[in-house]
Amino acid sequence: MGLATARAAAAAGAAVTIASSDRTRLESALAHLPGACEGAVLDTRDEDAVAALFARLGELDHVVYTAGDAVRPLPLDDLPLDDARRLFDVRFWGAVATVKHAARRVRPGGSIALTSGTVAVRPVPGAALAAAGAAATEGLTRGLAAELAPIRVNAVRAGVIRTPLWDAVPEPQREALLASLADRTLTKSTGTADQIAAAHLYLMGNQFVTGTVLTVDGGAVVAGS
Length: 225
Known about the structure:
Blueprint: H1 2-11, E1 17-20, H2 23-31, E2 38-41, H3 47-57, E3 60-64, H4 81-86, H5 89-102, E4 106-117, H6 128-148, E5 152-158, H7 173-182, H8 193-205, E6 213-216, H9 220-223
Parallel strand pairs: 1-2, 3-4, 4-5, 5-6
Helix pairs in contact: 1-8, 3-5, 5-6
């Protein structure tokens, strides 16, 4: 989702810098972006590294946070508390660190966008911590919109999107699972990274949108209500 958003922003004329904790993935992403795009290796769990990156980048118009990792459903009884705490390190606390050090550099009229998921409002067994993290991100979004105004702060609530995170599920179970999840949406489909990118470009461009959680899920939340 981050790569697709970077590609769309670059196509719209933005000067783009991307970051990843994995150098190989970063170099692969840069190979799919225009040559003017830049990249940085960054672990968002390291606040000093986050601060140093934004100090180097200087003034910004928009910041998009899509960092995450694969989360395996696991009942709370079977989840060690240390592991449970680590589930928040990248998706939530990494977002907090990013906003803390990026916000002071965002120009007037700029925006920050975070990423949550439909699990925040439609949890499933074994995903209580994932639901809590996504819901916390949405609460953070609304709170920051009030605190950082006139900088706009929004979030994209993603449904089932085909990204490499699904590679952790072995074939043929992966396609069967994705087909089952697609059948639970109103559009009878799974989403694409480009559709998430389109949502992010909308949030960047619309100066009258802040404190909003934009759902991109093919109507899955409505279908499940």
